[in-house]
Amino acid sequence: MKMGPKGPEPDSSRQLSGHPENLKLSPPPKADGTWIWFGSATNTAYAGPWGISYAINLTPDKETGLGNWREEDFVQAIKTGKHAGVGRPIMPPMPWPAMSRLSEDDLRAMFRYLQTLPPIRNRAPDYQPPTGE
Ligand code: HEM
Predict the structure, then answer these.
(1) What pLDDT, in 10s, does the model give residues 4-63?
(2) For ligand 1, what atom is nearest to the CA of residue 111?
(3) Which of 57, 63, 91, 100 has its Cα between 20 and 30 A from that of 19?
(4) Residue 17, in any domain of the structure
């Protein structure tokens, strides 16, 4: 976010770079059985029964974004719901089950578009599994 004339507003120069690495969040509200999931004010961090997930950096930065991903890694991640197509399950609310139904051509086009963005250095925090509290 950055300060605008009406208060904090999304900083479009950092668009799609994921949850800001140096933004510290307070603990999420407690679920009560009727409200079970929550999103941060930045719309980049989400708490729910799955733990806490953070939107990743989709810009082509080589260390903190998708700069070292192959097109195939991206397509497989979205199709299988596994990190880079092979790793741990991708957590909600990332809508991969819906996106997995897109055509492979569309997924490839998305990846190619993302690779044209200016690379932004930002390491989104790691996913945190539920603490059992
Ligand atoms: C066209 C739209 C989108 C694209 C291209 C996209 C792409 C991605 C990719 C490539 C990942 C990393 C997967 C991996 O680790 O292999 C990811 C993770 C994630 N996305 Fe999305 N995403 C989209 C929409 C959304 C939306 C709408 C939300 C939330 C409302 C979201 C929330 C997340 C979160 C929280 C993660 C991290 C999940 C985890 O750590 O397990 N994404 N996204």
Answers:
(1) 999 989 899 999 999 999 999 999 999 998 999 999 999 999 999 999 999 999 999 999
(2) 5
(3) 100
(4) no
Give the domain range for residue 48: 27-114
**Among protein residues, the one whose CA lies closest to atom 28 of ligand 1:** 94
For ligand 1, atom 25: residue with the closest CA: 94
What are residue 29's phi and psi, to 5 degrees? Answer: -60, 160
Tell me: cis bond preceding 93? Omega within 30 of 0 counts.
Answer: yes
Given a cut of 80, is residue 132 above it in pLDDT? no
Q: Is 120 within a domain?
A: no
32 domain-assigned: yes
Question: How many independent structural domains does the chain possess?
Answer: 1
- The answer to whether the beta carbons of residues 78 and 90 sit under 8 Å apart is no
Q: Note whether residue 62 is domain-resident.
A: yes
Ligand 1 center to 92 CA (angstroms)? 8
- Helix (DSSP H) and strand (DSSP E) numbers for the chain: 3, 5
